[in-house]
């Protein structure tokens, strides 16, 4: 998955060379709210069915 694991990758001493931390942050900021809303609506539908 393309999940944001840390808020600030620069605060670690691990070599983050597998991906771009800026791209992860940008994806998290744009995709996560949409996915959260989708899951919220799914939960509401399950409760109401």
Overview of this protein structure:
- The protein is mostly helical and 49 residues long.
- The protein has 1 helix and no strands.
What can be said about this structure in brief?
The chain has 49 residues and is mainly α. It is 57% helix and 0% strand.
Structure annotation, total helices: 1
Low-confidence runs (pLDDT<50, min 5 residues)?
none
| CA-based gyration radius | 15 Å
Describe the largest sheet. Answer: none
Order of helices and strands: H
Q: What is the percent of helical residues?
A: 55-70%
| Helix/strand class | mainly alpha
Taken as a percent bin, the fraction of beta residues is under 5%
Termini gap? 31 Å
Apparent shape: elongated
**Number of beta strands:** 0
Mean pLDDT: 86
What does the secondary structure layout of this molecule look like, with pairings?
Elements lengths: L20 H28 L1
Comma- or semicolon-separated keywords:
mainly alpha; 49 residues
């Amino acid at each position: 998955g393309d999940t944001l694991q840390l808020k600030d990758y620069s605060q670690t001493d691990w070599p983050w060379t597998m991906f771009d931390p800026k791209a992860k942050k940008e994806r998290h900021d744009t995709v996560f709210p949409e996915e959260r809303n989708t899951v919220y609506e799914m939960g509401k539908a399950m409760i109401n069915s």
